[in-house]
Specification:
Length: 106
């Protein structure tokens, strides 16, 4: 256990929910936040393994959790999410969000 990991895990949840803050169910926000913490742990280990000098784990928090949040937003949205009535629109939005994330990273 470390204080930095705990704080970064909480920050990861906050970063991830930003993409769906206005459109997620309460339980969806909880799912996004919990998965963001797990995603943070995985990205943090990957960054260390690759050898990137990132003492604050900013890459794991913002890239990892932010990417998860952008991809989770159309899945867990109230209006057009995969758990909602309009699954085709959710898949279309997921595709656009995925394309946007790829464009940002390139």
């Amino acid at each position: 256990w470390s204080l930095l990991s705990s704080i970064n895990g909480a920050l990861s949840g906050m970063v991830a929910i930003c993409a769906a803050a206005d459109s997620a169910y309460s339980w969806g926000a909880l799912v996004i936040g919990v998965v963001a913490g797990i995603v943070y742990c995985g990205w943090s280990k990957l960054v260390v393994r690759v050898g990137v000098d990132d003492p604050l784990d900013a890459v794991a928090v913002h890239l990892g959790a932010g990417l998860w949040g952008v991809l989770a937003a159309p899945i867990l949205s109230k209006d057009v999410g995969l758990v909602g009535p309009n699954k085709q629109a959710a898949l279309r939005l997921f595709g656009w969000n995925l394309l946007g994330a790829v464009v940002i990273m390139v």
